[in-house]
Amino acid sequence: QTAPGKGRAFACTDYTQGKVFLVAADGTVQWEFKTRRCNDLWVLPGGNVLFNTGHGVQEVTRAGAVVFDYQSKSEIYACQRLPNGHTFVGECNTGRLLEIEPSGRIANEVRLLPEGKDGGHLYMRNARRLPNGHFLVTHYGEQVVREYDAAGKTVASFPAAGGPHSVARLRDGNTLISCGDLPGGARIFEVDRAGKTVWQVQGDDLPGITLKFIAGFHRLRNGHTVIANWLGHGQFGQAPHVIAITPDKRVAWSFSDHTKFRTVSSVQVLDDSVAGSPDLSTIAH
To answer: Which of 21, 72, 216, 250 could serve as a FRET partner for 224 with CA atoms 20 to 30 Å apart?
Structure first.
């Protein structure tokens, strides 16, 4: 459980159980929703929850009503609500970056792969559309993060040994990347515009805590980085699910509950807000 008085309220997904949770600062589960394999999650300003479902994306109310539903034959690991109300979806197998209207109509499509080509299970994990219309995409199997322009042309590449799972562009222009458990992985690192690593936490950098597979994360306004320490691939119960790390690489707080949770794959801190509006710009589930 979260250490008393030190935790933060957060939302998370459990990939293995196929559940979405809202968790209070004391570690108590406040709400849960049964879905399928999910590892990208947003609690929207109105309170609804947007998440991927393995082969789709749904938005549900706190009462459990589905108000947006997109389904695909492709695996899907990335979703994002855009400022215009449309939903961004990254399709892993097809390599399609989609902008979908609330009605379900596809408003825009960018292809990273030729039509008909299957990129496979490891082609894409997390992806984000940036305010300038560019895209950040983690190519897990290729162990690289690429930034694409609005037409799908590569404009920057960031090597990411260990298998990049999630990515976010920070306010200062730096890029934050988390990696899985391929050789060199179990780390989260920040690079500047030139690709130089300016901050990194890996392996056994945190005393008493072993990083297994860093999936989603949330960089908070106070500079802390909250990570989802995914415990799949035979690591059940062997480390905390959620860890908040200070800029000087100390553990601010952590959350563990190996009874209710199995493999937490994304996290969004819910009280990191200004005037009641959650800051969604630096979340990468």
So the answer is: 21
3-state helix, strand, coil in the chain (%, to 5): 0, 45, 55
Per-residue pLDDT of the chain in tens (285 residues, 90 and over written 9): 555 457 899 999 999 999 999 999 999 999 999 999 999 999 999 999 999 999 999 999 999 999 999 999 999 999 999 999 999 999 999 999 999 999 999 999 999 999 999 999 999 999 999 999 999 999 999 999 999 999 999 999 999 999 999 999 999 999 999 999 999 999 999 999 999 999 999 988 999 999 999 999 999 999 999 999 999 998 998 999 999 999 999 999 999 999 999 999 999 999 875 333 344 545 554
Residue 146 tokens, joined: 């690429």
> Using CA atoms, how far apart are residues 86 and 64, in angstroms rounded to an integer?
21
Whole-angstrom CA distances from 163 to 29, 222, 231 are: 31, 28, 15
Is the pTM value of this prediction over 0.90? yes
Q: Which two tokens stand for residue 113?
A: 């792969």
d(CA 92, CA 282): 22
C-beta neighbour count of 139 within 10 angstroms: 21
Q: What is the largest CA-CA distance in the chain?
A: 53
